[in-house]
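Open question from group meeting: does this chain pack into something compact, or does most of it stay loose? Before anyone orders reagents, we agreed to write out a predicted structure and look at it together. Recording both the input and the output here so the notebook holds the full record.
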Amino acid sequence: MAFVFPGQGSQYVGMGGDVAMSVDVARSAWDDAANARFDGSTVGDVVFPVPVFSDDERAAQTKRLTATEWAQASIGVASLALLRVLRSLGVKAQDVGGHSFGEVTALCAAGVIDEASFVAVARRRGELMRDASATPGAMTAVGRPIDEVRAALAEFGDSVVVANHNHPKQVVLSGATEAIERVEALLSTKGMAAKRLPVSTAFHSALVAPSGAKFGDFLAGVPFGAPGAVVWSNAEAAPYPTDAAGMRERLAGQIARPVRFVEQVEAMWARGARTFIEVGPGAVLTDLVDRILGSRPHVSVPLDRKGKHGVTSLQEALGRLAVAGVPMNLAALWADYAPTPAPKKKPAMTLSLNGSNYGKPYPPKGGAAALPKPNPPRVKEVVEVVKEVVKEVVVVREVPSAAPSAAAPVAAAPAASAGENLAWVQAYQESQRQTSEAHAAYLKTMADSHESFLRTVETSFSGLSSMLTGQPMSIGQPMSIGQLPAAAAPVAYVAPAAPAPVYVAPVAAPAPAPVVVAAPAPAPVAAPAVVVAPVVKAAPAVDLQALMLTIVAEKTGYPSEMLAFTMELEADLASTPSSGSRSSRRCGSAPRGCPR
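Structure tokens returned:
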């Protein structure tokens, strides 16, 4: 198994963010890289900038990430994050390699450069290549086999060199700008198309050799350890030396030397590598490996695909590796998740027994067939229609009035109409009767109240008169208000019988004579009724003392012979045990027994 790490050109804004938000070990790589700040910013600030909403702002963010000093360090951290995911799953490689800058990441993956120094090494390499851009240079890609391209370059000598041999039919040339322009013109005459690359100088050529020397000086202060896997060199298409000095020299010289990626992949395959995992952003190297190895047995899997969700790309890659037989501890992907709670056991069903269901098993012994049908058949109901014949009875009441003038005969209403109105007439009659009774009761109550008031006034005047004259008070017959006549019993209204229809033959009416209509005489106005006060008859003489003794005897139970006007009401009348004090209280109602 071999890990291959991408180089500059694979970067894009937001790379690795999806996986970092889902897998803690991937996020830890970005957190560690945040400890290093360059020009006041971290790698994460450049890869994950603040959201913007215009194309110009997005282009500015992409341009900043494309700058060599930021691109190489950003690609390195994104690759390191995915590498930590593979390590957590127990996936290990025997061979590691890269494309251009990816070779630095391969040394870190093999343990030669520790992760604490890796970001600083990547940043310094990018800065030196940025400074090399001051030297004019250019690069162009040719889609032809390398042998044909080299034959065409024979006349240019060392001014134009093969910088990258990416796959069997793609070669990248590097050199001075004028030399590259002449090569493109020459290749055009030979039918070979060339495409200029948007780079600032001629990388992987002698023009950037000074940057390689400075990079070697920087690497002298970086500790190098023993490789834990075979590290492949782009320039030699062979494994790195194992000593620290040799590895520093090989890495520093790689900036100015060509990338022989085709030969490197073939050498790795020849050594036994059959599974190539691209660890980093994008899937550029996966496509190159497939083109290089062609139909030879191999599996190339990218862990990330630009334009696709990072977690989806990672899971698809792990699925392909599992199918290829790569052992993995997939449980590590869920290590940071809370354990799944055990499913709650459902309680056994309980059924309450009561009088409605005890001894009534369900379903019944006969099964579903013994149950009543849910929808019983409809039964047509025969409704007997009874027609009620109502006879109409006409009651004629005499009303004193002037003789009415002759009127045209009105056709008698049909019996059915009179029958319908009979119930309404009876209801109205009953309502009027109840109203009359209620009003009569009200008038009687008012009359009783007035009568009591008149008696009180009469008694008061008599008492005052006796006090003034010294004569005993004489109580005459009290004033009385005539009783209201009792309401007559209501007479039930009987509808008249409907007369039988009589057919009268039509007779031609004679021509009417002219009629002179006289002005109607004014109706006589009745004089207002004069209310005559009832004549009160003189009441017969009454023996008041005898009446009082009789009433007290009735109320107290004492014989009238034992009573005398000199007796005390509370003392003498209450002395008899048989009567008790209740007798004296009964005397309080004696005036009520007096005749009016």
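Observations to bring back to the group:
The domain at 136-200 is CATH 3.30.70.250 (Alpha-Beta Plaits).
The two ends are 135 Å apart (CA to CA).
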